Amino acid sequence: MPRQSPSLLTAGLLYLATPASPTKLAIASAGTFSVLTLSIGGLPASSSDNKDMDKNTMYIGMIMTLYNYGIINVQGDFWYHKTLYQYDKHPFHTPNPYDTSFASGLNTLSYYNWGFTFMRVRIEEGVYIDMINLDTNAGIASPGQVARRSNIQQVAKFIDANSAGNAVIVFGNTNSLYTRHKDNIRLFVTQNGLADAWVKSTGGKTPAAGATPLTCPNGIPFNIGCEDVDKVFYRGSPIIHIDSYGFYYDTSRFLSPEGKPLTERNPVRAEFAWSLKAGLRQSDLFGGPHGTWFNDLVKLPTFPRLSSITLRGGSRLDGLTLNLTSGQSFKHGGTGGTVSSLGLALGEYIVSVKLCWGKRQGHTRNFYAHATTNKGNVVQAGKTTGNCATAVAPSGYGVVGAYGQDGNEMDQLGFIYAQQ
């Protein structure tokens, strides 16, 4: 099915992980998880060589559950989508009401909840990884190559704009090979700072453009030395260290009872370990998935300290300004509302922020903020609602920045803490 632009996964859900009680960070400071990218090949039987797709999709769903994959990105999930969801037991699925080829065919099944577009997955409190599913244009003739290069460039720009300061994993069908000299798959490395899990697992050396293709054989590959178009790219962040410690072609797992492959290409699995870096932490995100992404994490100096905080609010929380002792100032939201400011004394820092959110013109956004320091001083703005939570910094940490989404008001908000 030809495409002129990549299909990016859209969950279309509001961020709901907003506990009503104070949130205490670092329930876990390290862990592991796995990701899998898999092409279902779910076109109608009349347009496919495989006449048993409904039964095969049932097997695929059962196998995905059996092997306990953490997050699965699927492509080509068209006509047999309901069967896949019926037999897979992952608790979180992207909604897809369509069973025809007019849908994108991209879906995600996960043991972890997420928030909104392109899936910002919440691994732990304050630990987020942006995950992108893609299915780029196929074809090695000129029109296909041009479209595919544009696809990859579009995704790279999307990451720059929407994942600044965040850990990222891109896994799906890139339709690209390193040995194909007109493919620009290296852009994820050079522009976005991502690493390829396959390249790392095969010695760390990327195949040269124009070299002999490392074609995977039909059936089950003998090892991971062959290159497939289904890839897994990843990076950490200033807060989270992520490392891939295993890469696998799971073809042998996805076989029918007769021993035939159930998928179009080799299912690709990557195993990851994550841990929190010393000195910085994040709160959860509160509010809704609207506005423009921002993240102060990428601009923080070494050993940041807060000198003052300013909140603007009236009926809602309009804006937030955080001034550091280094002279840097982070301003978010709009300029409306009444100004409330608090200067911090030497040794004083903000240890908790209560936020309340609600609906405004159909969008969820923050209505109220109340910050408290370790000396008991407070500053507040806006109006409370029935939906509130308090972000509490770990012991010895204080607010030094923020991240989330804003416009004329504060749509979504979380806080960055530094050790004091």
TrEMBL record:
SUPFAM superfamilies: DNase I-like, Mannose-binding lectins. Residues 280-419 form the Jacalin-type lectin domain. The lineage of its organism: Eukaryota, Fungi, Dikarya, Basidiomycota, Agaricomycotina. This is Jacalin-type lectin domain-containing protein. Signal peptide: none annotated. It comes from the Eukaryota. One of its GO terms (molecular function) is phosphatase activity. GO terms for biological process: phosphatidylinositol dephosphorylation. SMART domains: Jacalin.
